[in-house]
Amino acid sequence: ISDTHLPSLMRHLDELGPEIGDFLSDVELILHGGDVVGRTVIDWCEQYAPTLVSLGNNDIFDDPRAADVQRLTVDGWRIAMTHELRPEGRPMAQLLQATLPDEEVDILIGGDTHLERLEYRAGVVLINSGSPTLPHHKDTRLGTVALIETAPDRLHAEIISLGHTEGRANPGIPQHVEIKAGRIVAASYDGSPVEPDELSALI
Predict the structure, then answer these.
(1) Does residue 7 have a cis bond before it (omega within 30 degrees)?
(2) Residue 198, pLDDT score
(3) Among 130, 75, 81, 129, which residue's Cα sits nearest to residue 105?
(4) Which residue among 16, 62, 67, 73 has its CA within the 20 to 30 Å range from the CA of 100?
């Protein structure tokens, strides 16, 4: 989850409906990619699961759950999360050197753009969950979140559309990728299966 930007017109994420809470109720750990804005958002998330935050440019607060870069390892997958990855489309080696010099990661999580993104390049999964509240910088409405499921030899990563707010379409595009032993074994984009060799045309 990323770029919640609350409080603003709303104070809590459930004011958009139950969808965000329903999604978070099934996870074991929440990673927030920044621009939380208010610490109450972290508190709200923690009713569902432990929450870690990478501080965004609008996050002017201190909190032990927040840092500029979050690093963790889950099932052997090395994960790093930082708010600012622009431009996300540059070669992965440049992206890593600019944001995490001399570090090796398997999963790189960012935020900031409000645009969902899911790629597997140069052995690294790149995920931007977009925004659940301000997708594509449109006015307040349901947007997107991301889900990561891991096993020691397998990864499932998915961008999930939370549905539509009445009168305000959700511009987010659902997509997923499954990786086993360093290879893409399944993928989809906007509900349609995608062959691994076709992914480069979509990213």
Answers:
(1) yes
(2) 61
(3) 81
(4) 62
Q: What is the pLDDT of residues 147-197, one digit of tens each?
A: 999 999 999 999 999 999 999 999 999 999 999 999 999 999 999 999 876
Q: To 10 degrees, the CA torsion angle through 112, 114, 116, 119?
A: -20
Q: What are 148's strand-pairing partners? A: 157
Q: How far is CA 44 from CA 39, 58, 80, in A?
A: 9, 18, 23
**Residue 57 to residue 125: CA distance in whole angstroms:** 24
On the 0-12 / 13-18 / 19+ scale of CB atoms within 10 A, 49 is middle
Judge whether 85 and 69 are in contact, CB under 8 Å: no
Q: Is the pLDDT higher at 200 or at 14?
A: 14
Classify 79 as helix, strand or coil.
strand
